[in-house]
Amino acid sequence: HKWNLEKLMEEIWDRCNMLRIYTKPKGQIPDYDEPVILHAANPTIEEFCNRLHKNLINEFSHAWVWGRSAKHQPQRCGKDHVLSDEDIVQLCKKV
């Protein structure tokens, strides 16, 4: 008898209404090892910024988003953009 732990983990994520959002530093590959966890009730880029650092939103200019929430890959988005599970986000600060 074999356990399917991947399927179990997916089911847990779905039932907990939690989203995994991956960071992508400019010029680098996304960090798939440590996602930022957001609750599905308010998965905006602003909430994502607040999870990283409370003052980050004050320096926020826009974000590049790859994944299911983006209309094209990547999509330039503002702070009100609603993210989907396993999206990749690259934040850009004001100049």
The N- to C-terminal Cα distance equals 57 Å
* Unreliable residue runs: none
Q: Could you tell me the strand content as a percent range? A: 25-35%
The count of strands amounts to 5
Major sheet summary line? 5 strands, mixed
Sum up the overall morphology in one term.
Answer: elongated
Give, in spatial order, the strands making up the sheet with the most strands. 2-1-5-3-4
Task: Please compute the radius of gyration using only Cα atoms.
Answer: 14 Å
Query: Helix content range of the residues, please?
Result: 10-25%
Can you give the mean pLDDT? Answer: 92
Helical stretch tally: 2
Could you spell the SSE succession in H and E letters?
Answer: HEEHEEE
Brief account:
This protein is of the alpha+beta class and 95 residues long. It contains two helices and five strands; from the N terminus they run H-E-E-H-E-E-E. A five-stranded mixed sheet has the order 2-1-5-3-4.
How do the helices and strands line up, and which of them pair or pack?
Elements: H1 5-16, E1 18-23, E2 31-39, H2 45-52, E3 60-66, E4 75-77, E5 88-93
Parallel strand pairs: 1-5
Antiparallel strand pairs: 1-2, 3-4, 3-5
Describe the 3D structure.
There is one protein chain. The chain is elongated, with a radius of gyration of 14 Å. The longest helix is centred in the first third of the chain and has 12 residues, at about 5-15. About 20% of the residues are buried. It has a five-stranded mixed beta sheet. It has helices at about 5-15, 45-50; strands at about 20-25, 30-40, 60-65, 75, 90-95. The chain is an alpha+beta fold and about 100 residues long. The protein is about 20% helix and about 35% strand. The protein contains two helices and five strands, in the order αββαβββ. A hairpin with an 8-residue loop joins β3 (about 60-65) and β4 (about 75).
